[in-house]
Design goal:
Structural class of chain A: alpha/beta
Helix content of chain B: over 70%
Strand content of chain B: under 5%
Structural class of chain B: mainly alpha
Largest sheet of chain B: none
Number of helices of chain B: 10
Radius of gyration of chain A: 19 Å
Distance between the termini of chain A: 48 Å
Oligomer: heterodimer
Distance between the termini of chain B: 66 Å
Strand content of chain A: 15-25%
Shape of chain B: elongated
Helix content of chain A: 25-40%
Number of strands of chain A: 10
Shape of chain A: globular
Number of helices of chain A: 10
Largest sheet of chain A: 6 strands, mixed
Radius of gyration of chain B: 22 Å
Largest interface: A-B, 22 and 12 residues
C-alpha cells in the first residue's frame, strides 16, 4: 500500500437525522501522518463525520474508506478489527466510571491482547506517563478534573498503538492552560507515534496550533479546505467570520428581537 | 382533519412496531452472545453484579413477602372461620404465596429496585458515550454489560422468589397461629397437603422468565434512552412500567397453560378435599 494513498476517504457522504440534514455530500481525503483539523459551528456534523470513520454511524448515501477497506458496508467482525487500529478520544472522555484509571487504560489491552496482567499494567502505566499523569492509576474517574479525564481518555485511546487518533473536541470545557496541555499532547503524539490525527474542534487557537490542514464544515458541506495560513486570507464570509469569531448580522438581529426567519 | 388523525395513529403504530422489533433484535443479540461468547471474562464480571442484584434485594423481597403472608391470614380468617374451615388457612395462604404472590411480588420488587438501577446505569453510560467508547474499542457492549446482568437476573430471581415464598408462609403462619389462635398442627398439616411440588415449581420456573424479562427490558431501555438527564429519567420510568406489564401479562398466560397441564396430568386436586 502506497504511502501516498489517503488513509481515510469520504466519498459524497450524506447523513440526516429525521428531517435534519447534517452531512450533505461531503468528499474528503485524509493524508497519512498528518494532522487534519475539522472546524465548524456547533451542530454542523463534525462529530457525526468522526463517528462515520469508526462505523458508529452509517451514511444514508456515499462511501467511507479506511486504508482501502470500505467501512460502511463492513461486517461486525471486520469492523472490530478496524476499530483496533483507531484511537477515539470522546468529547467528555467517556471513561468507564466503574473502573479505576489504570483499568480504564488497560481495558483495550485486556480485551485485545494476550499479554500477562503484569505486562498490561506496565503498558498502561507507560501510557499514563506519556500523557503526564503518572501515579493516578488507582483513582476513580469521578475523582479527576475535566482536563485529567481527557488525558486519561487519551492514554486509553493510544493503548493499542493506533495508526489514527480521532479527537472529538479535545479542548472543549477546559481553561486555556489546560487546553494548551492537550494541544501539546496532540503534537507530541503526532510526532512520537507518527499517527494520523483528525481533530474536531471549534477552538481556533487549538486549530492553528496543531493543524497541518484545516477543513471547515458549514451546512453539511465543506466550506474551506486548505492550510492554516491560507484560511486567514479566505474570501468566504462564513469562513472569515468563524475564524475571527464574529457573529453575522442576522445572528445579532435575533438578539435584538427582530424576526429573522432563520432563527 | 380525519386524515391527520389517521396519520398520527399510523405513525404511532409504526414507531411502536419499530421499537418492538428493535427490542427483539436486542434480545436476539443477547441470546447469541450467551450461546457463543460466554467466557471467563463475562463470568468474572458477575460476582459484584450478583451481590448488587441478589444479596441487596433480599431485605426488600423478604419484608414484602412476609407482610403479604400476614395480611392474607388476616383477610381470609373470618371467611374461613364462618364456614368452620379456619384450619385450612395454611393451605390457601401457602398456595397463593408459592404460585402467585411470591414470584410476582418478588419480580415486581426487582423490576423497581434492580430494573430501575440497570436502566439508570446503562442509560448514563449511553448518554456519556461510554457505550460508544466500548464499541470503538472493539468490545461489544451487549456482551460486556447486558449478558452478565441478564445472567445474574435469571439466576437470582428464582432464589429471591424462594425467599419471598418462605417469608410469606412464615408470615402467614405467625399471624394465623399466634395472632388468630389456629392450632399449630392442623395448620401445617393442611399447608403440607395444599402446597404440592408442582405449585412450588410453577412459581420458581416462571420467576426465571420474569428475571429474564426484567433484565432485557431494563437493559434495552438503558441502551436506547434519549439524551440528557431527562432521557435517562424517562427510560427508568418506562423500564419499570414495561417490566411490570410484561410480568403481569406473562403471568396470566403462564398460569393458564400451567393449570391446563396440571389438570391433564393429575386432574383437579381440591384444597378443600381430604
Amino acid at each position: 500500500m502506497s504511502e501516498d494513498t489517503p488513509i481515510i476517504q469520504f466519498k459524497d457522504v450524506h447523513k440526516s437525522f429525521g428531517r435534519l440534514i447534517v452531512l450533505n455530500g461531503v468528499t474528503l481525503n485524509v493524508e497519512r501522518g498528518k494532522c487534519l483539523v475539522i472546524i465548524g459551528a456547533s451542530g454542523t456534523g463534525k462529530s457525526v463525520l468522526l463517528k462515520h470513520i469508526v462505523g458508529l454511524l452509517k451514511p444514508d448515501a456515499g462511501e467511507i474508506w479506511f486504508d482501502n477497506q470500505r467501512v460502511d458496508t463492513l461486517d461486525v467482525r471486520r469492523l472490530m478489527d478496524l476499530r483496533r487500529r483507531i484511537g477515539f478520544l470522546f468529547q467528555m472522555g467517556a471513561l468507564f466510571d466503574s473502573l479505576t484509571v489504570l483499568d480504564n487504560v488497560a481495558f483495550p489491552l485486556v480485551e485485545h491482547t494476550r499479554k500477562s496482567e503484569e505486562e498490561i499494567r506496565q503498558i498502561a502505566e507507560a501510557k499514563l506517563r506519556m500523557v503526564g499523569l503518572a501515579n493516578i492509576g488507582a483513582k476513580m474517574p469521578a475523582e479527576l478534573s475535566g482536563g485529567q479525564k481527557k488525558r486519561v481518555a487519551l492514554a486509553r485511546a493510544i493503548a493499542l498503538n493506533p495508526e489514527v487518533i480521532l479527537y472529538d473536541e479535545p479542548t472543549t470545557g477546559l481553561d486555556p492552560v489546560r487546553s494548551d496541555v492537550i494541544n501539546e499532547l496532540i503534537i507530541k503524539l503526532q510526532r512520537e507515534l507518527r499517527v494520523t490525527s483528525i481533530v474536531v474542534t471549534h477552538d481556533m487557537h487549538s486549530a492553528f496550533k496543531v493543524a497541518d490542514r484545516i477543513v471547515m464544515l458549514h451546512e453539511g458541506k465543506i466550506a474551506y479546505d486548505g492550510s492554516p495560513h491560507a484560511i486567514l486570507e479566505s474570501n468566504n464570509p462564513v469562513v472569515r467570520r468563524f475564524v475571527m469569531g464574529e457573529a453575522s448580522e442576522q445572528e445579532l438581529a435575533s438578539l435584538n428581537g427582530r424576526p429573522t426567519g432563520d432563527f | 382533519m380525519p386524515s391527520a388523525v389517521v396519520e398520527h395513529v399510523g405513525k404511532s403504530v409504526l414507531s411502536a412496531l419499530e421499537a418492538f422489533g428493535a427490542f427483539w433484535r436486542f434480545a436476539g443479540s443477547v441470546f447469541l452472545w450467551l450461546y457463543t461468547g460466554l467466557g471467563k471474562k463475562t463470568l468474572r464480571l458477575m460476582p459484584p453484579l450478583m451481590f448488587e442484584i441478589g444479596v441487596k434485594s433480599i431485605p426488600v423481597v423478604a419484608v414484602t413477602g412476609a407482610f403479604i403472608g400476614m395480611v392474607l391470614a388476616v383477610e381470609m380468617y373470618n371467611q374461613f372461620r364462618s364456614i368452620g374451615q379456619e384450619n385450612r388457612l395454611g393451605a390457601i395462604i401457602g398456595v397463593s404465596v408459592v404460585k402467585q404472590i411470591g414470584p410476582v411480588l418478588a419480580a415486581v420488587m426487582l423490576a423497581g429496585r434492580v430494573g430501575g438501577a440497570l436502566t439508570a446505569e446503562l442509560g448514563t453510560m449511553n448518554v456519556t458515550e461510554q457505550l460508544d467508547a466500548l464499541r470503538v474499542m472493539g468490545a461489544d457492549p451487549v456482551r460486556h454489560l447486558v449478558v452478565p446482568r441478564f445472567l445474574a437476573c435469571v439466576m437470582l430471581t428464582p432464589i429471591l422468589t424462594i425467599f419471598s415464598d418462605i417469608l410469606g408462609i412464615v408470615g402467614g403462619w405467625v399471624v394465623a397461629v399466634y395472632g388468630l389462635g389456629i392450632p399449630h398442627g392442623p395448620y401445617w398439616e393442611h399447608a403440607e397437603n395444599g402446597i404440592g411440588n408442582w405449585a412450588v415449581l410453577e412459581g420458581v420456573i416462571k420467576s426465571i422468565f420474569f428475571g429474564g424479562a426484567i433484565a432485557l427490558i431494563s437493559c434495552f431501555k438503558g441502551f436506547t434512552c434519549g439524551a440528557g438527564a431527562s432521557g435517562v429519567g424517562r427510560a427508568c420510568t418506562e423500564s419499570f412500567v414495561y417490566s411490570f406489564i410484561a410480568i403481569i401479562v406473562f403471568n396470566f398466560f403462564f398460569a393458564r397453560i400451567a393449570s391446563e397441564w396440571y389438570v391433564a396430568l393429575y386432574g383437579i386436586r381440591s384444597i378443600f378435599g381430604g
